[in-house]
Amino acid sequence: MTNTPSPFDASLLNQLARDIKQWGQELGFAKVGICDIDLAAEEPILQQWLDKGYHGEMGYMASHGMMRARPAELHPGTVRVISVRMDYLPPQARFATNLKDPKMAYISRYAGGRDYHKLLRNRLKQLGERINQALAAFSLPDSGYRPFVDSAPILERPLAEKAGIGWTGKHSLILAEEAGSWFFLGELLINLPLPVDVAVTEQCGNCVACITSCPTGAIVEPYVVDARRCISYLTIELQGAIPEELRPLLGNRIYGCDDCQLVCPVNRAAPLTAEQDFHIRPQLQQMSLLTLFAWNEATFLKQTEGSAIRRIGHERWQRNIAVALGNAPFDDQIVAALTTAKVSASASTLVLEHIEWALQQQLHKQQTQSHDNRKQQRLLRIIEKGLPRDA
Ligand code: B12
Ligand code: SF4
Ligand code: SF4
Fold first, then answer.
1. Which Gene Ontology BP annotations are present (predicted)?
2. Is the CB of 214 under 6 A from ligand 3?
3. Tens digit of pLDDT for each residue in 166-201?
4. How far is the CA of 170 from the centre of ligand 3 (A)?
C-alpha cells in the first residue's frame, strides 16, 4: 500500500491551485487565475469577426479555424488554463507631453522596453516547472504544461475573463478595477483538473469613452474592433501602404496606440510595472520624429535590439514616421529631411510613396493654416486631468 494521493484528490488540487497563485506572484505575475477550456460561446463571435474581414491582412487569425476557441486542439490533453497578468505601465509615461508635441514620436507604452513575449514565456515556464516539481513530490505525472503569450492561436482575452483576471471592456481589452488595463496576458495550458475561478462582473456601465475617443473609429460597436481601422494594426501588422484616408488620423503615433486605454476611467488607479525591463529605453523616450527618421537600417536594428519594435523592420518604421512627419505642422527641417530621403537610393517604393504623401501634406500646410484636431485636444485634457502622474 502507498500513501500517494490519487490524481484527482480534491484537497491536493485545492492546495495546488493556492500554491500556483502564490508562485505566480513570486514570479512577477500580478494576478493568476484558472479556468476550464470551454469557449464554445466565443466561436460564433470569432466567426462573425472573421466573416466581416475585421482581421484585415492578419491571415494567421483565420488560418487555424476554430482552434483559437479550442485549447485542447492546440495542445492535446489540456483541461485547464492558468491565465496570468503582467503589468507594463512604465514610470514617466508622459502621455500628454508626448501626444501634445506633433514633432515628437509617440510609441505605445507597451513597446518602450524589452519584448514581452520572451520575458512572459520564460516566467510561465518557471511556473510550469514548479508545478511539475510539486507533482513529482507526490509521485504524480507531470502537468504537460505549455506556455503561450500572444502569438499562439488561442483566445487569450476570453480565457482571462473566465479565469477572473478582469472583464472585457468595450474596447475589447481585459481590465480590472484594481489594475486598469495596462497589462499583458499569458497562459499555461495544463492537464490537471484544478478548481476554477469565477469571472468578475463587467463594470463599464454606461461609459463609452473608449468608443468615442478612438481616433479612427475602429471600435465599431461595443467589444468589437475592426482591426483594419486600428492604429495598432496600421502601424504594426499591416505590411503594405497605410490607406490614405486614415493617415491624417494617426497623428504622431508611429508604433501602436493607447488612446482607448488613456480615456478609460478605470485606468486612473492603474499600478506601475514592477519590471525594470518594461521601462522606456532612453533612445525611445520622447524622441523627435526627425531623429528617428534619420536612423538607417543598421541603427534601427541596433537601437531596437530585444524590443518588440524590431519585428516591424526598418521599412515599416520609416513608412510610419513619414506619415507622422506629414501630419506635423509645416517645418522647413521636415521638408528638407523628406526631400533628402526621397532622393536617397535606400528608400523602398513603399516608403517613397509615403514620403511623397508627407511632402504634399507639408507643402499644403505651408500655404494654408492647419486646424487643431478637437478630438486630440479633448484627449489631452482627459489625460492631464485624469492621469496626472502619467501625463
Ligand atoms: C489580433 C490582435 C490584435 C489586433 C486586433 C485586436 C482585436 N480587438 O481583436 C490589433 C493589431 C488591432 C491589436 C491591437 C492591440 N492589442 Co492585440 N492582440 C491580438 C491577438 C493576437 C488576438 C486577438 C483576437 O483573438 N481577436 C479576435 C477577436 C474576435 O477576439 P477578441 O478581440 O478577444 O474578442 C473577444 C471579446 O471582445 C468578446 N466579445 C465580442 N463581443 C462581445 C460582446 C460582449 C457583451 C462581451 C462581454 C464580449 C464580447 O468575444 C470575442 C471573441 O471571443 C491577442 C493575443 C491573443 N492570442 O489573444 C493580442 C492582445 C489582445 N493584444 C493586446 C494589446 C495590449 C493590444 C493593444 C493595446 C496594443 C497597442 N497598444 O497598440 C492594441 C489594443 C487595440 C484594441 N482596442 O483591441 C493584449 C491585450 C491585453 C489586455 N489587457 O486585454 C493581447 C491579449 C496580447 C497579450 N498577450 O497581452 N491586437
Ligand atoms: S488602439 Fe487606438 S486605434 Fe486601436 S481601438 Fe484603441 S483607440 Fe482605436
Ligand atoms: S473607457 Fe469606459 S467603456 Fe471603455 S473600457 Fe473603459 S470603462 Fe469600459
1. tRNA queuosine(34) biosynthetic process
2. no
3. 999 999 999 999 999 999 999 999 999 999 999 999
4. 6
